Amino acid sequence: MTDVLLVVYRGVDLDEVRAAVGDEDVHFVVATGLEELRTAFAAGTFDHVVMGGGLDIETRLAAVREVFRLSAGTTVHLKDRASGPGGYAAFVAAVVTGMAGYSASPG
Asked: What global pTM score does this model have?
């Protein structure tokens, strides 16, 4: 099971993301800010965090710092702004499929 935290400006269509990823062995959690990110990490661990391009730069930077403070084994991915909200599902799919088989464990 791959656990992915989606950090977005506002909600995301999880059905669209799941369809783009095409892997039923991926669990998604959505956070819309730093407090929800912290709450998500308090409840569990994540393999990847994928941030949307709609978040302002200060929030994105603070979220990166917070993820690395909370976890030594979570990767962080920042979506571009140019492709707009419509490109989010494809970006998540590229990250999740591209990172398949990756483990933060040494060796």
From this structure: 0.94
